[in-house]
Each structure stands twice: as structure tokens, then as C-alpha cells.
Amino acid sequence: LLGQILDHWFESEPLKATLATDAVIGAMASPHTPGSGYVLLHHVMGELEGRRGAWGYVAGGMGALSQAIAHAATARGAHIFAEKAVCHVLLGRDGEAQGVALQDGTEVRSKLVLSNASPQITFLELIPQEQLPKDFVQRIRQVDTRSPVTKINVAVDRLPSFLAAPNARNGQPLPHHQCSIHLNCEGTQLLHQAFTEATHGHPSSRPMIELCIPSALDPGLAPPGCHVVSLFTQYTPSVLAGGRSWDEQARNAYADTVFDCIEDYAPGFKASVIGRDILTPPDLERIFGLPGGNIFHGGMSLDQLYFARPAPSYSGYRSPVPGLYLCGSGAHPGGGVMGAAGRNAAQVAIKDFRHL
């Protein structure tokens, strides 16, 4: 249990609760949920520029990271076709992968296929079910993809000024503006209460909010004097109580709750908002192909990690379809911007390719 780990090392409740947020990020879990300690470990493993457990902003926004990978690939002869939806994986007479078919009818032939899509899309939508073992299909269907995350992107006309650390007179960003700011984290019980509300189908009345201002470090993301604010919030259930869906009214009501909370910490924030983009779990699924809106392609719970990710006997990136590999967040070791799953899958695919 995460709570026991934090109680062992720390006394301050706000500090424990703030650290606890990284144990429940993207997880429909509470700090009191068994296994939550691993999610915290997952978020502090690795290093950035020699600093263990450190995180950083990508200059130009997260899309710049994808572009950097794309440029590295094309420099070595890769061809990238963006906005070309894959309809299904092409299979040979013996059930082996032979390429992909696009929705416009184009067929791209290849000896190997690596899928960065979720296990659900890869195996339940792109492959005929009769080509897969029944127990494997059942396992993929049973993966827990519940997600508590609603992401809100905000454009503001001035830097938020927090009561705890008011802005400088010149309005320039201070050190705390360049960090991850955690709100509604005064105690772990608050996080547990927010989680409990979501399990009953209600968006948290006092949501956990992780607030980042990337433009404080990367001014090119916004016009002079303005800023972009990224809000990672939870807990929001995929389906609301009574089977209600996330209509415009429900989305705006939850966003208003989030903004009211920020206003308590930084008066004037609501008046500074120029525009907002609200992405609930169903939106994250529809737009980005995240099953259930889960940023990790499936819960990072102990029963869905290591040799069980995405399914027992298939944690080594190979799949029941010869020549088809899983290389995204649904593969070992899971989600996060670290590239471990892709690197590992590439090494397995290269090893196999040499024998073709």
C-alpha cells in the first residue's frame, strides 16, 4: 500500500498527499488501493539528463517529441503516412502478418507489423477473431481499462497568481510556475474521497488537479503575456451515475468545479481564461484511441503488469499472430513517455527479422 510507504518516510500530510498523486495518476485507484505503490515507482523510475526520477517539458510541446522520433526514422529511410487509418492487418495462408490494409483500400505489404495501438484495437478490431486463441481474446476483453482522467487545456491572458506565492510585479514566471503544481492535495483522505465519489458514478466534487504551465518555460507556446495551462484532473467516471453520458452540460459542470477549485488557490484565474478544451474519458477514447480513455492502454495494476501485460505468455512483444508485435503502452513495462516498450519490441522484431 502506498499509504504505508509514505507513512514510513514522511510525517507531513500535504507532502504525503502530493507524492500520492503520482501513485494514482491515470489510475482508477485510491492511495489506499493495494498495488498503488507500484504506480508511484513507475513514475519516478529512470532519469532525465542524469537526474534520477526527474521529469521535463518538451520544447515546442509534446508533439515535438513525436516529430523528433519521426525525423530520426525518415533520416534512416522510413516512410511515414500520417492521417492514414489502418483497416486491418493482412494475413497470409498460415495466419502470419503480411502487412496492413488502409481504409482507402491501399495495401502495404511487409514481413513484420508492429502495432503501437492498444491491445484492444490491435487484437479485437484489426485481426479476425477466429485467427486468435479464444482464451487470449477473452483476456484482452477483460483488461481493466477504467480511467479517471479528464484533461483540460486552458488558454489564459495572464499568469496565474497563487495566494501562497503571489506573482512578481513584472508578471514574469517564478520558479513554482515552471513546476508541476498539485491542488486539492492537502491530505490523502481528500484523494480517497475523490476516488470514492467516482466509483459511485459521480465526478469528484473536489478533484485532484495537477496544473502545469508549459509556456512559463517555453514562451513560444503562447502570445506575449499569455499562457497555456494544462490541467490533468481526476476522478471522473467514464459513465455517469444512472447511465448518463458526458454531454456538454456535464462536461462544463465538471470543468466549472475544477476552475472553482483553482480560483480558491489563485484568485482571478477564472477571469483570465480565454478558452478551454475539455477531454473526458470518452473523448480521450474517441480522439486518441485510448481504451476507456486510459492513458496507459490498460490499468497499471499488479495483475496487469510484467508477465501479464497484455496477457500471460504474450508479455515478450510477440503475439499469437506470427510477425505481429505489440510495441505501445499496453505492452511491458506499460505507459509513460519513456519509449521502453517500443525499444524492447524493436529489438525482438529485429532478432526475428534476421531469421526470415
Automatic annotation (TrEMBL):
Pfam families: Amino_oxidase. It is found in: Mitochondrion matrix. GO terms for molecular function: oxidoreductase activity. One of its GO terms (cellular component) is mitochondrial matrix. Keywords: FAD, Flavoprotein. Its main location: mitochondrion. The keyword Flavoprotein applies. Residues 34-175 form the Amine oxidase domain. Belongs to the carotenoid/retinoid oxidoreductase family. Probable oxidoreductase that may play a role as regulator of mitochondrial function. Interacts with COX5B; this interaction may contribute to localize PYROXD2 to the inner face of the inner mitochondrial membrane. This is Pyridine nucleotide-disulfide oxidoreductase domain-containing protein 2.
